[in-house]
Amino acid sequence: MYFCVVVPNLNYGQFLDACLASIEAQVGVDVGVLIIDGGSTDNSRAIAEDYCQRNNWTFLEKKGLGQAASIAFGLAKEQWPDAPDNAVYCWLNSDDTFLRSDSLRIVADQFETFFDVDVVSLGGYFLSGDGRFQAPVNYDYHPLIRGDVFLRGGAFLQPATFWNAKVNHAIVINNAYRYVFDGDYFLRMRSEGYNFYVNPRLHVAGYRLHGSNLSLNVPPKRVSELADLYRIRLSRPGASLYLSVMAKLLRACEFMPLVGEKLKRLIRSANNAASYFTRYMIPSI
Length: 285
What we know:
This protein folds into two domains: 2-215, Spore Coat Polysaccharide Biosynthesis Protein SpsA, Chain A; 217-277, no CATH class. The protein is 38% helix and 20% strand. The protein contains nine helices and nine strands. Strands 1, 2, 3, 4, 5, 6, 7, 8 and 9 form a nine-stranded mixed sheet that branches. Helix 1 runs parallel beside helix 2 (44-55) and helix 7 runs antiparallel to helix 8 (237-253). The protein is globular. The mean pLDDT is 91.
């Protein structure tokens, strides 16, 4: 099976080598890689070009394009003219990795076993900034709830989610979003009726936690985008309104230079605790 892997990068040279090495190490499948750099000023280009030369991968510089637009550009059908009809697509952010040399072989096995599946989403581990294992990623951790994680505001693990060419060529990433474009992308796959296979117990990807990771911060814009998802994709107007109010509260914290960031983290912790105890009736942020 052939995998088309897009790697967006901007000044993540400290992580890029581990990311690309994890792709290079894959066995039992054929892999094409398109690295899209947003104009890095660190050592990213040298690292990327070295891997491209060794593996016949492709490096493109797209200054100022942004993460979502870079991924959308990289996934476009015209970027993969030689990909077979049964190719599988994904993106791997340059600060993430595949955990094992047979990660993509495991993914291929799921597509080949469940022949009517369009999207395969597996599991992984949180990694520290220096690559140490932290804990399994678990979006279905509430002991009293089982079922559709999206309806509770959860998500699939992005670096462990893969889709076939039919899905890839039909649905395009919405690059109007900066923070939640992946959630919107997968929700649209679901709303279009594509078949999902989900098994978070098969750990194939590492999701790195570090200071500049957009998912770890609490910018008001991210919460505003979440409000959009709850209103448009999840049909939960009450939750959307709540998130809009939270975004305004977080925005107000930014005008408090001495304590604003601490308040934002406190608000996020309190909100997410309330989310857990209300079984996600209150959405997490």
